[in-house]
Amino acid sequence: MDLAFFAAEWLGKPLWMWLAFVGIVIALLTFDLGVLHKENRPIEVRESLVLSALYIGLGLAFGGWVWWYLGPEPGMNYLTGFVVEKTLALDNVFVIALIFSFFAVPAQYQHRVLFWGILGVIVLRAIMIGLGATLVAQFGWVLYIFAAFLILTGIKMLVIGDKPPQIADNPLIGFLRRRFNVTEEHDGERFFVRRPSPETGKLTWFMTPLFMALILIEIADLIFAVDSVPAIFAITTDPFIVYTSNIFAILGLRALYFALAAVIERFRYLKPALAVVLIFIGSKIFVADLLGWEKFPPALSLGVTFAILAAGVIWSLVKTRAPASSALAGEGTDAR
């Protein structure tokens, strides 16, 4: 094959860069499902933390390569996008935990749902980012709509607070139960099973609660993508930076879920911090125009974003730690 084919530009970058990135993603997914989790078993917290560190390290290493090969500005934009998208992905963990709890998904089958959920996310984000890039390229004023939407979303998050979604009242669950055959119990790791129809007695296909959980997780990501896609386009309009930072942030979500689900209450102030970040990212487009800047400085954007999120994490850990008196009381009880 002619090497010129790989050097041809697609969405502003040589085709070989896109193919290399896709190859990395396929290799990671294959390694995750085919090597690490061939058997159905719960993922321990320690294993989850190790895998999460690996995925975060790979995402940062890719950002280092972007910085080295494309320059400091694309590198800082990638890192800012990666940090914001990773935090938005963490927020998604809260909803995933509620979905798994509602459908009583056994721990050993949760990783299967998350794997196929993330695979769907990769495709879904590619479509949404492609549409967003086309809109921004054709109509520059769309960025201002994205920015205003982010500001309103951040304000809404601050006002509503930590009100959890009501899974039981979700109309999609009622629709699926009315329109399709659904089993009341799980059948191992299967998404579909064949059972006698209640009406005819003939064997027919039923979807299991595991598949319903997968559908709700995909819908939840679609809702989260409405926030995350405008957020990354408010940072940079380069489709390569937008998509790669998005996907690297999402890839480690499956591993990170099992660690965060155990300590989810320790990060109760992360959501307000994320709301402030969304307001900041939306506002900086208007601030740059008011100050006559061509664009908001990427280094300043990265520094402010990281500082706000770090403050949210530290404040959460400080406010939710066990009081010293309680810890001492516990030690005394153990001693007796």
Q: Note the main sheet.
A: 2 strands, antiparallel
Count of separate structural domains: 1
State the helicity in percent bands.
Answer: over 70%
User: What is the ordering of alpha helices and beta strands?
Assistant: HEEHHHHHHEEHHHHHH
User: What would you call the shape?
Assistant: globular
Distance between the termini: 76 Å
Tally of separate helices: 13
Radius of gyration: 22 Å
Widest sheet: strand order?
1-2
Number of strands: 4
Residue-averaged pLDDT: 79
Low-pLDDT stretches are: 324-336
What would you call the structural class? Answer: mainly alpha
Strand content: under 5%
Main location: membrane
Family: Belongs to the TerC family.
Pfam families: TerC
Keywords: Membrane, Transmembrane, Transmembrane helix
